[in-house]
Design a protein that fits this description.
The protein is mainly β. The protein contains 2 helices and 13 strands, in the order H-E-H-E-E-E-E-E-E-E-E-E-E-E-E.
Length: 201
């Protein structure tokens, strides 16, 4: 008879552990992001105002503590206003006329609080602090995966910076939509609205 309370205690501890685990969820998402650059940065870098990024995000929601952590990495493309036009030799033989493109990596990490607007926890708002980096920026006429003789390449720096963000969003079964306002502490990116579309897998 003395074993029953012990068994009950172990069973309750097991349920409590599962309940705690159920309060934490992790998702991997492919997202498309649109952002803009400051006027002075556009003139200095020879870029237009708009840029687009394709990112792979890891997102961890802790519903017990009401926090969210996000980390993303991907590629960004920019509106090249200082295009280089040239004829180049591709893969050792073919000659093509090329116009340059500007690309970089994009790396983002942030952390903050998240609250839900409904019992189903489909609609939410969050308040986060984070950092955006845009490394390996370059203007080039070379395409990925090819050998190019004479292709121009110009490397330069695009500064991201630390930011604070307020977002509202909605979870679908395999997708997420969010609209957020970002305030940057410096760098080349504009403060303003960001619209994100993500697909989970």
């Amino acid at each position: 008879m003395r074993k029953i309370p012990l068994i009950n205690s172990l069973f309750l501890a097991f349920l409590a552990g599962n309940a705690a685990a159920a309060g934490v969820s992790s998702t991997t998402t492919i997202a498309v992001q649109h952002f803009t650059l400051k006027d002075e940065s556009q003139q200095e870098l020879g870029l237009g105002d708009a840029a687009n990024a394709l990112e792979l995000f890891y997102k961890r929601n802790n519903r017990d503590s009401g926090t969210v952590f996000t980390a993303g990495v991907g590629f960004a493309s920019y509106d090249d206003q200082a295009k280089i036009n040239q004829n180049v030799t591709i893969n050792g033989g073919r000659i093509e006329s090329r116009r340059s493109e500007v690309r970089s990596l994009i790396v983002e990490v942030d952390y903050g609080i998240q609250r839900y607007l409904d019992t189903a926890q489909k609609n939410y708002w969050n308040l986060r602090a984070g950092y955006t980096a845009l490394p390996l920026a370059k203007r080039t006429t070379k395409q990925s995966g090819e050998t190019c003789n004479g292709c121009a390449e110009e490397k330069f720096t695009i500064d991201g910076g630390a930011y604070g963000a307020f977002a509202v969003g909605h979870y679908f079964s395999k997708a997420e939509l969010s609209l957020e306002y970002r305030q940057y502490a410096g760098g080349d990116l504009n403060n303003g609205l960001l619209f994100n579309v993500g697909f989970s897998f």
